[in-house]
Protein: Malate dehydrogenase
Amino acid sequence: MKVTVVGAGAVGASCAEYIAIKNFAAEVVLVDIKEGFAEGKAMDLMQTASLNGFDTKITGVTNDYSKTADSDVAVITSGIPRKPGMTREELISTNAGIVKQVAENLIKHSPNVIVIVVSNPMDTMTYLTHKATGLPKNRIIGMGGALDSARFKYRLAEALDCPASDVDGLVIGGHSDTGMIPLTRLATRNSVPVSSFLNSEQLEYVKEETKVGGATLTKLLGTSAWYAPGAAVSAMVQAIAGDSKKMFPSSCMLSGEYGQKDICLGVPAIIGRNGIEKIVEIALDDAEKQKFTESADAVRKTNDLL
Ligand SMILES: NC(=O)c1ccc[n+]([C@@H]2O[C@H](COP(=O)([O-])OP(=O)(O)OC[C@H]3O[C@@H](n4cnc5c(N)ncnc54)[C@H](O)[C@@H]3O)[C@@H](O)[C@H]2O)c1
Structure:
């Protein structure tokens, strides 16, 4: 499998590193607009190959899409990240132009590619990628819910004082501080509802900390996080590579599912060789339905800025 990662910054490089360490891809091509940057990141990562025991070949190029030809998967991380105090939505004026141009370049050289969009505001950038490329809707996936769900499980594990591997849970809705919906009602510890262990106040705390998970890290780091985002993207790329049909909440173009149309929003999706193999419709209660509608309305407002 050949994977292109556009943007060799914090998230792009972390994603390339996890892909290589998991050793499932033959080739990763890093692309950046900054002269020599992707080449440098690729060389640095390749010098870890003998230490970390991987055979994936990582190369870097400056804005040369001919080197990305025939990629199976392309990840778009190019664009600016937020600074403390900023919302993801504030990035749209810079990132929309970058994502559109990158998406067009990618499909010129890899017409059969599956695109994973990471750049923020991610749901709107995923929508833009659909409009700019016209690719079938199964071949464009927004990464947000996989990360938000990992952050949800981290907070649940902290509250439960147990390993995160004991916890299951998912976050749907928009990838924004106000739009995401951590589904505490459905979260479990080894199949036991978390409400058996945590009271409503504790669950509310977990929910709120999950929603501001990105903002908390941006405040601590001075820029947005990269390890968990990189790991989340690499897990999705691995699911495509292995056709594993693993379920990740992902930003998918909806055509009536969850009562929404012509919008990309986070819903549980089965990921495999064809990208989005299936959108899973789960029964939401009235409060969750209401939140999903509000989240969709907010994403539509951001889409209108395009
Ligand atoms: N969806 C998510 O869950 C999630 C999580 C974390 C970060 N993000 C987003 O991912 C994006 C990248 O974040 P980061 O921390 O890696 O930023 P970064 O600044 O470290 O890296 C971005 C890279 O993109 C490059 N770039 C800019 N324009 C380009 C172009 N036209 N072509 C190729 N490369 C170009 C820059 O030179 C830079 O190296 C941001 O928009 C951030 O908000 C999303």
Summary: Residues 6-12, 31-34, 37, 77-82, 91, 95, 98, 102, 118-120, 122, 143-144, 147, 175, 223-226, 229 surround nicotinamide-adenine-dinucleotide (CB under 6 Å). The chain has a mean pLDDT of 97.
